[in-house]
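Batch manifest, entry 17 of 40.
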Amino acid sequence: MLTYWTNPHNIHMLVHKCNQPKGGEKLAGVRKPRIINTSRILRDIWVSRRISRVQLARDLSLNKSTITNIVSDLIDQEIIMETAEGAAGPTGGRKPVHIELNRKFGYVIGLELFKDAYSAVAVDLAGDILFSRSEHKGLPGDDVAEIVVNLLSSLREELSWVGIPLLGVGLGISGIVNSEEGIIIGSIPHQIPEPFPLVDKISNKIDVPVFVDNDANACAWGELAFHRTKKLRNFLFTLVEFHDDPKHMFYENTAVGLGIVIEGKVYYGHNHSAGEFRSLFCKPEDKGQSSVSSRQDHIYKDREKLTLFFKEISQHLALFVNTFNLSQIFLGGDIERYQDIVMPILLDALAGNWMYDSPVDCEIRFSSLGDKAVAYGAAGLVLERLFADPEALDRLGMGTWNSSKALTSLLEKKKSPGRG
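Output type: structure tokens
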């Protein structure tokens, strides 16, 4: 049976069993700090990729015995493992033994779902890709929930060769999404005009946690997860996709979405619609998201029209970057194929929107994942949830931690790795 927490800060799948009191003792208030410390240690290992016990103690201001006890438990549970010894300190002495996550502990799946196509990516705990695929074909099912269940069933069977358990699934979808509650509030491409409780509909059919988010937001979470050692704080992910399907008439075959990250967290707005883009240059009669794409089909086939489209988009990006002093712009999706056109246009827009003599301090990066940018980002969304920052949990109260049964369920899966 699936164990699922709707609030992303309530899930911590890798904590519960490592903190079970011995001899059947109930989890009392005195043990609560250990749960927090275990979570902090796991996240620090994940963020650092490889780290010594000494550095863990320094990073987290924990004493040696606390680190030793918790790390030993995590090693016993095969969540983490010791690796080759590091270099000795400047004064010599014993070389530190590094620890890192056990990549064979499990994997996660990221999905991007279109009306008649999908992209899928499977990654290990470090974020390395184990499997990827994009297919343009009709998917079985009467609604999004049934399509997701059928697709995951097929993918899990195909991925049995991985030999490790599936830990969670992330789904990136175009539209307005309440990620905390797993609800698609509305999606024009998927013809969802009213709130659709996706997670509730599939929770009794999928035995791992499932997370859903807007496609551009999923990409933003992916950048946070896969560039975690850089500790990104304030940036904008711009997702641009071109569709051949003439049924996408509202978007006129062009879709633009923004994932906004402020202080290391994706910003959703008060009703979860932050990042929904529509150009200031659109007229009331325009159905699309930009004045150029609304009046042209397949603009990516015409370099002149495409240039006008990128200029219009870049003007908006420059306004956002300079107004909010963002440090990076990530560009993903089909826009990656046109880097030679986009880069000079965006640089000119950033400079033209800036009133000072000093250059704009903003890095422009392409995600390099093409049509799998959303799926890879959705996988990163799952990893971010698995290794949630416990500092952000304070406002939620400790009771949510005590009821967590996720690790117990997770470790049961390890007894039958072929089922992953």
